[in-house]
Amino acid sequence: MKKQQGSELFSAIVAAPFGAMGVRTQDGQLRELVYLPPHFAEKDAQDAVSALACAQLARYFRDPDAPFDLPLAAQGSAFQHTVWAAIAQIPRGQVRTYGDVARFIGSAPRAVGQACGANWYPLVIPCHRVTAAGGLGGFSHHDDAKGFHLGVKRWLLAHEGVEGMRWSAR
């Protein structure tokens, strides 16, 4: 079997309905989760934390109410942590706009969007639940309406029961 180029960057790769999720761990902590396109093959967990992350991700893909409980490495600025804490309070099945989050924390929508895009732990910190005032908005620093990342955001929101969201595999 040919090794997938780029797979060496991850401690594990778990299949997802939209493609895959790359899991990076270090020193017994989760360092990053990455949305990967469908051409990435699964990769067995290389350590206990990546195995735990894969199990929790797979459970979430079956059940949008499945909780995450992972040892997260400390990353990000104080401002990013403020944004991420606000995002973590958004219930499954609901969305808030960048402006809503900005007003809640006393900031600006663009700064909230930048913090969302810098999220090391998507799904664990559900930045997909933050949208633009007039539509879906961007996702993971991508805004191509027909691109992979916004397709992931559509799938996640539909999976979580957000009304009006549809996703289809190409």
UniProtKB/TrEMBL annotation:
Keywords, alphabetical: DNA damage, Methyltransferase, Transferase
Gene3D superfamilies: Winged helix-like DNA-binding domain superfamily/Winged helix DNA-binding domain
The keyword DNA damage is annotated on this UniProt entry: yes
Signal peptide interval: none
Pfam families named in the record: DNA_binding_1
UniProt record, GO biological process: DNA repair; methylation
Annotated InterPro entries: MethylDNA_cys_MeTrfase_DNA-bd, MethylDNA_cys_MeTrfase_DNAb, MGMT_N_sf, WH-like_DNA-bd_sf
Superkingdom of the source species: Bacteria
Family annotation (CDD domains): ATase
Molecular function (Gene Ontology), one example: methylated-DNA-[protein]-cysteine S-methyltransferase activity
EC number in record: 2.1.1.63
Keyword Transferase set for record: yes
Segments forming domain Methylated-DNA-[protein]-cysteine S-methyltransferase DNA binding: 78-162
NCBIfam families per UniProt: ogt
Name of the protein this chain belongs to: Methylated-DNA--[protein]-cysteine S-methyltransferase
Record organism: Janthinobacterium violaceinigrum
